[in-house]
Amino acid sequence: MGAPRGPLALICGGGSIPLVVAEAVRRSGRRVVLFPLRGWADPNAVEAFPHHWVHLGQLGRFFACARQEGCRDVVLIGTLLRPSIIDLRLDWTALRLLPRVLAMFRGGDDRLIGSAARILEERGFRLLGAHEVAPEILVPSGPLATKRPSVRDQGDIDKALAVIQALGPHDVGQAVVVADGYVVAVEAAEGTDAMLARVAELRRIGRLKTPAGVGVLVKAPKPGQDRRFDLPSIGPRTMEGVAAAGLAGVAVMAGASIMADPGAVAALADENSLFLIGVAGAGA
Amino acid sequence: MGAPRGPLALICGGGSIPLVVAEAVRRSGRRVVLFPLRGWADPNAVEAFPHHWVHLGQLGRFFACARQEGCRDVVLIGTLLRPSIIDLRLDWTALRLLPRVLAMFRGGDDRLIGSAARILEERGFRLLGAHEVAPEILVPSGPLATKRPSVRDQGDIDKALAVIQALGPHDVGQAVVVADGYVVAVEAAEGTDAMLARVAELRRIGRLKTPAGVGVLVKAPKPGQDRRFDLPSIGPRTMEGVAAAGLAGVAVMAGASIMADPGAVAALADENSLFLIGVAGAGA
Predict the structure, then answer these.
(1) Domains along chain B?
(2) Could you report the per-residue pLDDT of A226-276, keeping only the tens digit for each?
(3) Distance (Å, rounded) from C-alpha A200 to C-alpha A219?
(4) Which of A61, A99, A177, B192 pairs with B74 at a CA distance of 20 to 30 A?
(5) Residue of A nearest to B164 (CA)
(6) Within the 190-249 window of chain A, which residues sit less than 8 Å (CB to CB) from chain B?
């Protein structure tokens, strides 16, 4: 990779992960300039860094500000549930690229990311993954809390990884819940928190009959996913959702997933007797 | 198939499909004896037929009643979300088969069905599919309402069929929602109605940005699924859910899906300007 030079432009979607990355990069001694996306990024959270608000469609404004700040490297991170074209607020630069921008909004996320990378690269920028600028935010391999997965949990983890593997070509599903060999929930547009709330509700109304303490949440990138964008992430809220859903624990793909606030995550795992483990992929 | 002989034993889970099947079999001139499952079948709906209530674990009682009624052919139909072992109310016959019954409750539905079929066959019964005793309840091929799917809808249908195909080996997912090339929701334990309610909610809170009238619900059996049990089904409630979710229409696999109350379903499709079509599988 070589030592990255100059300040880093961090385009911030929603959630807490963009700030986790920004802080890690700043700790490494590199200047960070945030480009929070209006409607997605958290206004309070970005105050601690130099920043320029942009609409998702303001490509011209982004290119100009990033050049002015001396940024060549760009990281794009955070949730960015596909917006409507009207919310984009396309500027003139974006309008000139309109056919490509429209094409980006058809099909899955991988296509979106590939197109974004090409548009940036044609203009002299370089799209990097968060793990390239802040490797310590990646989930390491092995147990990360006191409890260990049981043999049954391990079977559920393997099954969930196989489901994520099978869905990969269709650009869907970074998270799956499996309980005692039974696929309980597959995440698509709703996000992990909503999927976990659904599992808790299925248990409450008696549609999920496996006892509390059985079942796993597994998060892993889609096989073949461009890892420069939208790596699966977990944080304290994930652990709260897993506890509320009555599962046994969480497995995330080591080296390819991001953890926000690892200390709080591990503490929540221990408080709720959940396992938390970084695992290798299913032949990925 | 040959002409089936003697009365038919219909073991009824939840939902409206068991009664649709019972009525179709009765119309064909064959006597039907219902075995509604306590906790699943609708008490009011079974009154119109001779019936014997059973708990899921009362295998001995079922075998005795079915023999007394002169039934050799058995159809098992309706929703049967996996119950807890305590809800089964195992009788002595079931207890003698306990290791096999317990094994049935690990792993996916296909295993459950295969085991149930073997246990019945060893006792001289024959497990049939609903489509074998009432072929007219199967969804036919081609358009079933006035509106036709657009080219975009057809692309979404193909993508959804491919996702169902990919999930087949993992015994999950008979229903998927795809909107403009994007997989919005994958059904697992929650059922189709709950999945459609989630899509409506994603639209309401602005997480699904495709305009109303874009997106399809596709239902198809898992490839390799034992079609004697739990074929995908649609009914009036499905169409109401699809309308509330703002989708363009519904595609179901022709010859391998069941429709309850076809007249009402088609009328609801037309009222809401939805397409409704029986399609061939994705290479299945």
Answers:
(1) 8-135 (3.40.50.20), 138-279 (3.40.140.80)
(2) 666 667 889 899 999 999 999 999 999 998 888 888 899 999 999 999 999
(3) 18
(4) B192
(5) A167
(6) 190-191, 194, 198, 202, 207-211
